[in-house]
């Protein structure tokens, strides 16, 4: 969850983060604590590694299924076939560790404890607490909060796998889900039935949090609910949108080690011009300070709307703009970027792949950052851009709608420009307004830059909102018992 744990710890909360031990973390030591969990027809022993940083206890669950090549969820061949087991194991370990493992000589215990469960991977925790612990007087004063970052991923598996989760049979309904006929896959006799892990978490959690107010509304609609909109709408009274924050130290133009010239709001015009010239030189683009330099940093896929940028490319070239794109993803889009660079050597640069220093350089050097996402639960790049005085042009969806506020030249308010019509024309309308303002009304453009740089995007803001949700959850009785 990024820097939320640190933000909560700074506000005086005792905070523990529990995650799989995906790698060999040099700062984490083996506590020597071992315990066994019954899952998938057998006992599985897990170990516990621990380190403490910035007032947060980082606890890593050790099991052979976590230490493997690839990313946490899969490799070049797709998702790992045992992900259901891996994350069910994590959930069961997560509810045992506060009871068993001493950290700073004491266990966390079960009183007034709040579990923040991230997405489907931790969504069994809200089911495990009432089905296996509260009936025996344990965790009666604990609460669970399900945090939704992307509703598209739900942890869906065949219905027979429920029996492998070691949950009481009467709780099957919490996970049961049935797809409509036109979406059904798998065995005919299942009739679209499955166990849906995320649905179970939404059904049983005491509170549900999303990463922006806009996304909290969108997921209650058929267009944004990914078949769970009815359930979420029924629980809307406990659904809260809390905007993510960013690491204000890592993303600080005054101290960023990745950019060639550091700057603050006091000298941002000079600093950004210097970063722009340096990036143009590094990428072998013509060094022209007057030309709008437009950037994109992100996955090259359908969700992020990279295809809309490719559709807008002729306009960008004809209107004398430079475009720099950094990302990887869809092979067709990657190849299209390469072709665009070949055909427009003085206007387009494509960095296919990902590079952290380059992402910082683009954020600092560009005048405008494009975020034409089809859906975006929160979005972070627009927050990074504002911090660096780069003006976002974004599709008005999810967290982008909450953070990118259209510039009002009369009131001198706003942090960028947005568009509602999800098309190349819609993107060009907003982008055209931004480029026109940049060229014809530079003082107004600088007002937008300064407004973005002054925005408080720290995790302290988010932590304060989370504390309100904690209070609401602990004040109410447990939703399931």
What does this 3D model show about the protein?
With 481 residues, this protein is an alpha/beta fold. The protein is 35% helix and 20% strand. The chain has 16 helices and 19 strands. It has helices at residues 4-10, 83-100, 125-133, 172-175, 197-204, 213-218, 229-234, 268-282, 306-318, 331-343, 356-365, 381-387, 398-403, 424-440, 442-454, 459-475; strands at residues 15-20, 29-39, 42-53, 56-62, 74-75, 78-79, 114-118, 143-148, 156-157, 176-178, 193-196, 207-210, 239-241, 293-297, 322-327, 348-352, 368-371, 391-395, 417-419. The strands form 5 sheets. It has a 6-stranded parallel beta sheet, with helices on both faces. It has a 4-stranded mixed beta sheet with strand order 1-4-3-2. Strands 7-8-12-13 form a 4-stranded parallel beta sheet, with helices on both faces. α1 (4-10) crosses α16 (459-475). It starts with a helix and ends in a 6-residue tail after the last helix. The model has no long low-confidence stretch (mean pLDDT 94).
Blueprint of the fold:
Layout lengths: L3 H7 L4 E6 L8 E11 L2 E12 L2 E7 L11 E2 L2 E2 L3 H18 L13 E5 L6 H9 L9 E6 L7 E2 L14 H4 E3 L14 E4 H8 L2 E4 L2 H6 L10 H6 L4 E3 L26 H15 L10 E5 L8 H13 L3 E6 L3 H13 L4 E5 L3 H10 L2 E4 L9 H7 L3 E5 L2 H6 L13 E3 L4 H17 L1 H13 L4 H17 L6
Parallel strand pairs: 1-4, 7-8, 8-12, 12-13, 14-15, 14-17, 15-16, 17-18, 18-19
Antiparallel strand pairs: 2-3, 3-4, 5-6, 9-11, 10-11
